[in-house]
Design brief:
This protein is α+β, with helices and mostly antiparallel strands. 25% of the residues lie in helices and 24% in strands.
Length: 475
């Protein structure tokens, strides 16, 4: 059988041998691959975006936009060209992200003066330039495969800002309500109409503190930070409704009576099950406690739905348990999911969604990953040189490792699709001996005393097991 490898929007197709030649070329040492290229310069193998701010003003703020211009050149697909050197188009640019903004290479948010269908994506003014990250490409496409209401599209692109080559980015649609984005009813700002307040929301369960946020107590040691994105300015009536809504959701999910719990009246079971599968297949530790978006439309029996996706990651480790139970460097334990997998309806929804995905959707997803990542190999070599990567693996090797990790996660999950445990058996509680308690902050630093702000309390027992709990100190 001939396997095909096709560049996006290109009629060229390659047989198995040509794919192997391409991968082999991508695996060549950087010094050979880039012999004809100047260091820290665009390769021309991917679309290229040139941004210039007024008076070459640096972009140093995440809250204040800087005015500028841009143009995009796509040598492979000239129909995607936007503007030109002679006639650049206006935009505004600012920083974005939390921990990623503290890195040397910065991510950005851009707002165009006019809506444009950049690189064949849906027309809009609002976009993000995310750091190139292979799991982001794989994970966002998995959202489409799993049938979430809407998932952002993304395209690799090389970027220059004020003449400085910044390397390889992912030009990505941002999570927002709109005709060409999450197409639902949008709750207006400052609304006081109690009949419409319960509809048209886009919120995010967040690890960070934001001004547009409410806080709901999840348990005795932790609060949920709910960032409201749409609307972004609340009347007192909207604020009180949103607080009450998430208090009700949280109480229903933590209800000990799983058979009589009312959480399904508030949250869409199928969407939550699909979201859960995506986080498990990716082994994405951030899945339920940070960048966890939820939305609610205006319709009969409207319920909160998980999504859209954002901040995709893959730990690429040996998976031995559900992701929320496995340790990470920062130790966070996601909320809610540990309760949901004890609910019979949720487990059945997970099984049904999994049967749609496994195994028929796996091969097309792997082919997508190859098709959309391997063509970035030459630009990735420039990216490594520009930012002095410690890991010098060529992109083909990294992609192969990612796919191997994903396949291992898929097989583990297929053997551990959650089911409700048998009830009625006598359970004997055993108090375990504590040998150590320490606290881990957001930077991964450990101490016997809690740090100011967000902490993970890690308790180690005499039998070698551990437990974690999120705590907040100094607030």
């Amino acid at each position: 059988m001939i396997h095909t490898f096709r560049h996006r929007n290109s009629p060229l197709r390659y047989g198995r041998s040509m794919v192997w030649n391409l991968i082999t070329c991508l695996a060549l040492p950087a010094i050979v691959l880039l012999a004809a290229l100047p260091m820290h310069a665009q390769t021309g193998t991917l679309p290229f975006m040139h941004i210039e701010t007024e008076n070459h003003q640096p972009v140093t703020s995440k809250t204040t936009y800087v005015a500028g211009t841009y143009y995009i050149v796509d040598n492979q697909n000239p129909e995607h060209n936007v503007g030109s050197t002679e006639s650049p188009l206006p935009l505004e640019i600012k920083g974005r992200g939390h921990s990623s903004w503290r890195s040397v290479k910065k991510p950005y948010k851009i707002k165009l003066a006019e809506k444009e269908p950049l690189l064949g994506m849906n027309k809009n003014k609002h976009w993000a330039l995310l750091k190139f990250h292979e799991p982001t490409v794989a994970g966002l496409h998995l959202g489409l495969v799993m049938g979430l209401d809407w998932t952002p599209s993304t395209r690799p692109i090389e970027v220059t800002l004020n003449g400085d080559y910044l390397g390889l980015y992912l030009l990505t649609e941002t999570n927002r309500i709109g005709k060409n984005r999450l197409d639902i009813y949008e709750q207006p700002n400052w609304n006081t109409d109690e009949n419409t307040i319960p509809y048209g929301w886009l919120v995010e369960v967040d690890n960070y503190y934001e001004p547009n946020q409410i806080r709901v107590k999840e348990n005795s040691s932790w609060y949920l930070n709910i960032t409201y994105h749409s609307p972004d300015s609340l009347s007192q009536a909207q604020r009180q409704w949103l607080i009450g809504e998430f208090q009700d959701i949280n109480a229903a999910i933590y209800d000990d009576d799983k058979e009589g719990s009312t959480w399904e009246e508030l949250v869409d079971v199928d969407a939550m099950a699909r979201f859960f599968i995506i986080q498990e297949v990716l082994d994405n530790s951030d899945g339920f406690h940070g960048s966890f978006y939820l939305h609610k439309d205006l319709e009969d029996d409207a319920r909160w739905k998980a999504g859209p996706l954002w901040d995709m990651n893959c730990n690429q480790r040996a998976k031995t348990d559900y992701t929320f139970r496995m340790k990470t460097s920062y130790g966070f334990t996601p909320h809610w999911i540990g309760e949901l997998i004890e609910d019979a309806d949720f487990c059945e929804a997970v099984r049904q969604a999994w049967d749609e995905f496994y195994p028929s959707a796996i091969a097309p997803w792997m082919e997508y990953i190859d098709e959309h990542l391997l063509l970035c190999g030459e630009a990735f070599e420039q990216e490594k040189a520009r930012w002095s990567y410690t890991n010098q693996d060529p992109l083909a090797v990294r992609v192969d490792k990612l796919k191997s990790a994903l396949m291992a996660n898929i097989e583990w999950f297929n053997n551990h699709v959650p089911s409700v445990p048998i009830t009625g058996a006598d359970v004997v509680a055993v108090e375990k001996e504590v040998v150590k308690v320490e606290y881990v902050n957001m930077a991964g630093m450990r101490s016997a005393q809690p740090w100011n702000g967000v902490n993970i309390k890690v308790t180690t027992y005499a039998d070698g097991s551990t437990s974690t709990a999120k705590v907040l100190a100094g607030h």
